[in-house]
Amino acid sequence: VAFAASIDGMAILDADGRYLFVNPAHARLYGFGHPDELVGRSWKVLYRGDELERIEREILPEVLSRGTWRGEATGCRRDGSTFEQELSLAAFPEGGGLVCVVRDIGDRKRAERLEHALYAIAETAHQASHLDEVYRSLHRIVGSLVPARNFYIAIHEPETGLLSFPYFVDEHEPPPGPQPLGRGLTEYVLRTGRPLLVDQEVYERLIATQEVEAVGPAMIDWIGVPLAISGQTMGVLTVQSYQPETRFSVADLDLLTFVSRQIAAAISRRRADEQIRQLAFQDTLTRLPNRAVFLERLESALARRGAEGAPVALLFLDLDRFKSINDSFSHEIGDRLLAAVAVRLRDALRQSDLLARFGGDEFTVLLGDLNEPREAGQVADRLLAALHSPFDVDGREIFVGASVGIAVSPYDGGDAGTLLRNADAAMYGAKSDDRGTSRYYSPDMNARTLELLSLESRLRRSLQQDELRIVYQPMLSLADGRVKGLEALLRWDRDGEEILPSTFVPVAENSGQIVEIGAWAFERACRELARLRARHGADLRLCFNLSPHELRPPGFLRRIADTVAGAGLPPGSVELEITESVALDDSESTREVLNDLRALGLRISIDDFGTGFSSLAALRRLPIDTLKLDQSFVRHLPAGSRESAIARAVIDLSHALGFQVVAEGVETREQFDFLLACGCDLAQGFLLARPGTIESAGDLLAAESQDAAIDVP
Ligand code: C2E
Ligand code: MG
Ligand code: MG
Prior knowledge:
The protein is of the alpha+beta class. The protein is 44% helix and 23% strand.
């Protein structure tokens, strides 16, 4: 009786392997209506192919010799479909047949596979070394869930609007190139944002209703699931079958839909990382390597060639009067001209020379395999000659000249910094002398160095003579327009002239004076902010820029803690800004300092994000509260769709990592609106408020407590 009522399938087989007795559950498991349909038949009708062979060759001999066997097997239902089962077999003594118990474990196995797949997706998102590898492992992972012999990922590229196929494996078709959106099944899923299982019937219906057009070879079944990130469909993942014996079910569709969110997150994170990295190494305008790449290559060339005692030449090329070209035409024309200049310069060089856009209208060239310093001058002349004929930009004829400075190691310096400085000085020499020429560096060319020297000695006295002051630039919440913080920025009034930090902070850093100046500025800013907070009852944040040189001296932490406490500021209201490159530079010791600052309750922010070459993934290891998007990012919003896409991704990812995001240098209403729509938290910029005295910041707060908030103009 127990036998008949059991929910497990149970059966008794005779010595020939024929069913003597079968319970109803057993018959049901294999898709039979009644036990009698199995009685008298061989067990071999319930297994198929390799599994049949395995049971005969391995399992049965073991049952007969040991008496029992228990394990997993794959059974075959009456309709030919298979199911995973747990199988227990026990032999009657003296070869008298078998008792067999069968349990369907399909659900449990599916759950296990699903869990494993989710884990594997997360792992590949973090550990794969590049995007191609991510796609390959996603294929493998999806293949563990459903038959995936034909598998592709389609991405709707935000920049171009094209549909691209970064991963495409198909029995019948080669990978297609990027293409405009058509009316295939992929586009249909992209359009509707809904998962879709297509068999012949569904396909014909979609075609008949003109929802889709037939493209590609005829298939048996097709599944497409949308890859969506925060509600936006960015692509489609597809598996398809051309074989009648490989069919897809609704269960398969559900599985893929279930994992698709995580797949989308993995792909979008890695794509954003990759774009940021590219952006960080390549100058977007000219597609030349940027300053960071150049410096790295220069250093390694110096190390390699220095060891051989061979020279390395550095050419520093600066366009003449580029600023006036930019001003008299337009920035777009200026940009296009720069791109055209880059092409001509590159064509004038050999493959082995490295040309980089160093900044603005400055280009640098590294000659890593010259025999004699003289050859550098010949290259410089070639470059100048290449610029000789006029450029045609938008039908305008524009003449551009340039000046080139040359420095050669080891004569003009053994390290990258010295060599660059000297090539730069030589370039200035060429410029002042006679535009459109090149010049080798010579030690008497030190006008600029002398200028720096005098700057340094004047700066040394600036503190005593009370020439330094601090201005404050408000930082506003995008959502409600209220002032949430003030960033302290140094100013130097020298002989009635206002000198900006870009001129004197590097000098102060080089000479070490930044430590003293920074300490003074921090002390003052803390006190002024504390007073402002007391007067306006506002929970304002003080943002303070720290130079890497300030982090190193012993006693730094003590001083910071004492200053904050002395001013009576809650530590959580002070945010220290470190530039991106510094944060990642010398990571071990920097990370320690940052951790210590955090432990004191201070906030840490990454300044100028987007100018160095970090990815968000790298920043994740640091204790960070806030990320400041550099103005170079913000400047192109929202017109440059590439920048917009990246900005949006950076903001999303930052939030996912728990960072607050501040946009720097917001100058237009369009930029403001775009950032607001992207969910950016805070903004600074001339549109909102220029840096001003502490009193002017106070006035702003006073006005704010009268009105609800500052009106964005
Ligand atoms: P930062 O920290 O990225 O500061 C933002 C800079 O952008 C400031 O320049 C600010 O005046 C400028 N700015 C703000 N909004 C806009 C805008 O809408 N458009 C444009 N074009 N510019 C905008 P500033 O004051 O010349 O400071 C330059 C850099 O000098 C700062 O960059 C910071 O890295 C450094 N610095 C300033 N004060 C200090 C200081 O006390 N200590 C240290 N170590 N560095 C400082
Ligand atoms: Mg800053
Ligand atoms: Mg900045």
